[in-house]
Design the sequence.
């Protein structure tokens, strides 16, 4: 399936008129970010389930979702940086979207550190569950940052920002 | 976005979601096994 997706990106999808070949990174960048955000949401839902049912199974689900989402979200940030270089003429800028995405990555990296710091399993699971629920606030904030704040990051779904640079023509 | 671009985009989204769910399933299995090992270790130490 992944090979088919790569094949479609490079051989089926036409080259974008303004940005050229570098726009192809968009297909992986958006997909990785989307999956990462959904994973963080899944971790929050598993956190709620743990607090309601007190079943360690949900703590395992929550931790697994955070670990994987961190990897996918990091991939999205790196791919975004690769795209930003030709589109914005810089690898990184403290744009609201990039800043909030960094905050999300750090919030969930801190979740792993928090877990490492608590020895008692039940206490660790309870604190972790609360943290994933509270930490999830940063995710919709990142999603909405390009819609609510002045930014150069293009909007893929919904109305496009006329000030965005690097949007598809 | 043209129609082939849109199709590629949605296929890419589905592929990444599938990869994520597969990895998540394996990670949860691993987590449950680690929990079992921990319980067995505690049993042995008592």
Sequence:
């Amino acid at each position: 399936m992944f090979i088919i997706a790569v094949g479609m990106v490079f051989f089926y999808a036409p080259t974008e008129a303004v940005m050229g070949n570098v726009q192809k990174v968009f297909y992986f960048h958006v997909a990785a970010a989307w999956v990462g955000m959904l994973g963080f949401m899944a971790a929050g839902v598993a956190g709620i389930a743990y607090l309601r049912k007190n079943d360690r199974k949900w703590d395992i689900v929550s931790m697994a979702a955070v670990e994987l989402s961190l990897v996918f979200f990091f991939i999205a940030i790196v791919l975004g940086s690769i795209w930003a270089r030709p589109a914005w003429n810089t690898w990184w800028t403290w744009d609201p979207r990039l800043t909030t995405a960094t905050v999300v990555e750090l919030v969930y990296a801190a979740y792993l550190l928090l877990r490492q710091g608590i020895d008692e399993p039940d206490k660790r699971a309870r604190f972790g569950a609360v943290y994933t629920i509270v930490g999830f606030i940063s995710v919709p904030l990142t999603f909405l940052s390009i819609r609510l704040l002045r930014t150069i990051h293009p909007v893929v779904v919904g109305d496009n920002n006329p000030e965005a640079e690097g949007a598809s023509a | 976005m043209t129609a082939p671009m849109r199709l590629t985009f949605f296929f890419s989204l589905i592929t990444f979601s599938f990869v994520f769910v597969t990895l998540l399933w394996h990670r949860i299995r691993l987590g449950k096994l680690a929990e079992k090992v921990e319980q067995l270790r505690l049993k042995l130490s008592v």
The radius of gyration of chain B is 20 Å. The CA atoms of residues 8 and 32 of chain B lie 36 Å apart.
